[in-house]
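Components:
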Amino acid sequence: MIFVIAEHRDNKLKPITSELLAFAQRVGRDFSQPITAIVLGSDTAALVDELKVKKIDRVIAGEHEQFAEYMPDPYVQALKGIIEKENAFLVLIGHTTQGMDFAPRLAVALRKPLIAGCVEYEKEGDRLILTRQIFNAKMNMKTVLRGEPPYVATASPGAFPADEVESGGIAQVVPLPVELRTTSQRKILERVEAQKGQADLSSAPIIISGGRGLKEKQNFHLIFELAEAIGGSVGASRPVVDAEWLPREYQIGSSGQTVSPKLYFAIGISGAIQHLVGMQTSRCIVAINKDPEAPIFKVAHYGIVEDLFKVVPALTKIFKDLKQA
Amino acid sequence: MKIISCIKPVPDPASRLSINENKTWIKDQDLTFVASEADNYALEEALRLKEKHGGEVVVLSMGGEEAARVLRSGLAMGADRAIHLLDPKFKGSDEFTTAAALAKAIEKDGGADLILAGVQSDDLGTGMTGTMIAAFLGCGHATVVVGVEANPDARSLKVRRELEGGINETVELPMPATLTIQFGINQPRYASLKGIMAAKKKEFKVWSAADLGLEDGQIGRAGAMYEVKEILIPERKSKVEMISGTPEEAAATLVEKLRKEAKVL
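Structure:
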């Protein structure tokens, strides 16, 4: 049995859940394993409706008032109970802030292997080989799991396309009364959405983003000048914001804004997966980086392997000249 | 308040990495090792909490000479003492066995009110070890933390977590707890010359696997939950068109292509 732990918010499945189902359907075919989606919530009816139309075998709906908001301890207690009762092969969880919060505890509770941040898998005989990225996506590591199943894996957002999920299933729906031994010691006090400020990039047609390759805050004017010449907006990768070169509202990526402009420039950005998930659906992506191995080139349409301090001023000059012409 | 700050030694981010002959790890013999970047944010947060509430900061690391090096840097930044888990048997540890050993060391040192670790390391980058330490210790935890407020008298913590899409969540949890600290929570300090001199006189404990009461099957490669089959440079699936020439030529060609081919300008 392959278990997919559904992630949801505001009574809707999050996109990662479809990605996990796509992953599960592929592994399920290769290893002849049925698929069960587990959804934990205080009221799961709408979520179950979304899940049961996918091509999977079963939906387990675990309801408890303590699941109104995600908390790690109740999740781990409930999931351990469900998984240990079955002949489980693989447990799939999103490599998201929520998944990363409980997957390690679940693996330790089960005393089973956890491979975090999976991007691909292989079948080698009867063995499952899980691949994940290391060194900021510069290398891939293929891992062989030890011991008897189940194995726990978290999947990187964006690695398994959600649109590959097959629908048309007749999943059996199993409501599961959940009993929890304890109440969560961790409690949510508040949840706030960060202000978008003047840098709301969600509707910008052209975005020029700079990264750590700019070396210092003073050099960021190169990005602003190019943006002005081309008539675009400025964005940034996480390290730029962490170093306080620009305010948080400029950040593009999984913990910042998700954008999809018609033209995206990634300048001096290596392309960590967290950045890629925030911009990879852009219509045309240009990457300028002096490292030919930088993962940003994997999603780019045009690439220039060169010193950005030479290419960017040259580009700015061309656009300025074009404007005047 | 006693705070333990965990530090992982990783290759200096400026180093050029290559894969070893067995394709099981990188060639790490000649590399310089530094503290994983997120662990610096964790240590800075630990030092600030101590400055506010009193107590001590202990830095903890596992590994060979490279671990001793990052621990000395931690002492120079202002930590009070260091614990170095040093044993050839620790070699080949995964997140599971690393967390088990670190948790044992924390117990042997008499526990802590707060355990901090970086949100993820610069090498494996899985972000799992910190939370696994909490699981082995049986204490609470919170991940991706961008703000910490401690109330030692009430044995309580208020922490802000960063979720996807710019959402922040504030949670309350009791001490002891383990927190994984997000990049950018603070600006880590640099060690002063005075700090570097003072570090030489600070307590520096070295513990082996036997000191922790860990058996061979529970640690290092022998206890690991998975084996590395192969490390490889990922194949590029993309159809990226590389533009060459001098910077001026490349810029001109790019603009031409964006206008005529991609038609986005």
